[in-house]
Write a structure and sequence with these properties.
With 285 residues, this protein is an alpha/beta fold. The chain is built from 8 helices and 15 strands. The structure holds phosphoribosyl ATP (PRT) and zinc ion. Zinc ion binds next to loops.
């Protein structure tokens, strides 16, 4: 059987979460510092460990069938690949920043100024859309030092916590692009490989849905069941079993993480007791 060739970052901010995701999908493979390739023993897949910048090109050329890369790198490289799904990790933003003491009036500040960046395409597009004529200097790394050494008046770089900008005397003034890890695939995969990709996406969806839900068990007086199950409708509908104690039932269901605490508080007010919250490993509809 044909193997799906999967490109992931060898070492960096995408690596650990990429490996963790495939492992959570039950796909076993070895990872080692000196390894460039690794075959899965329990799924028809072969992993290639690459620099993140090379991944979109390799997937576009068919050297790899699928890959995981930051959206910032994908858009900057303008490769023709298929975006399969957003993965929700390695979140960051590409932002314009200037020296901390600048009284920033808005994007027009950059008119006629020079900006250092490793993302000339994304930045160029943003400047054009905003009608700003600025000089873009390409630098492949350590962009944040450019204003300090007099190379540019502003920078456009990846920001996560903002700590790097701060420690270089800069402030973020204009977020221009939000990024997260994306699963990409080659545009002309064979039927056989598409089927393998579908199996992986199905498993990833189960893992991602489970991450954002909790299994909840609670006890409630019977006359409060209806009100409580309005808040926790469950996958199809909640399970309700009578307790040994007369007039009480146990309710089992799933709750979404984002409005979790508000719902738990509302259910307590309605008379729910003995609330147990359990993490879900996989969720399959
Ligand atoms: O060696 P290789 O080429 O494979 O890796 P790399 O060094 O080019 O990339 P890497 O591992 O640093 O980042 C991979 C991807 O992670 C990026 O393309 C982004 O999609 C995403 N990501 C998430 C980040 C950050 N967070 C991040 N904080 N990429 C870079 N940074 C850097 C940024 O360049 C700046 O220097 O961290 C600094 C800013 O961080 P804060 O927290 O101080 O704001
Ligand atoms: Zn890189």
């Amino acid at each position: 059987m044909k193997k799906l060739k999967i490109a992931i970052q060898k070492s960096g901010r995408l690596s650990d979460d990429s490996v963790k995701l495939f492992k959570a999908c039950g796909i076993k493979f070895e990872v080692g510092k000196s390894k460039l390739m690794s075959e899965s023993k329990n799924f028809p897949a072969e992993f290639l460990f690459l620099r993140d910048d090379d991944i979109p090109g390799y997937v576009a050329d068919g050297v790899a069938d699928v890959g995981i890369v930051g959206d910032n790198v994908l858009v900057e490289h303008e490769c023709h690949v298929n975006r399969v799904k957003s993965l929700g990790f390695s979140k960051c933003r590409l932002s314009l920043a200037v020296a901390r003491d600048v009284d920033y009036p808005g994007v027009s500040y950059f008119e006629g100024k020079s900006i250092a960046t490793s993302y000339p395409n994304i930045l160029g597009k943003f400047l054009k859309e905003n009608g700003v004529d600025a000089q873009v200097h390409f630098i492949s790394g350590s962009v944040e030092i450019a204003p300090g050494i007099g190379l540019a008046e502003g920078v456009c770089d990846i920001v996560s916590t903002g700590g790097t900008l701060l420690s270089n005397g800069l402030k973020e003034v204009e977020p221009i692009f939000n990024s997260e890890a994306i699963l990409i695939s080659n545009n002309s995969l064979s039927e056989e490989k598409l089927e393998l990709l579908d199996r992986i996406v199905f498993r990833m969806n189960a893992v991602q849905t489970a991450d954002t839900h909790k299994y909840v068990l609670l006890n409630a007086p019977n006359d409060k069941i209806e009100a409580i199950i309005n808040i926790m409708p469950g996958m199809k509908s909640p399970t309700i079993t009578p307790l040994a104690k007369e007039g009480w039932s146990s309710i089992h269901s799933v709750l979404k993480e984002n409005d979790f605490w508000e719902n738990i508080e509302a259910m307590r007010k309605m008379g729910a007791e003995g609330i147990l919250v359990i993490p879900i490993e996989k969720m399959i509809f």
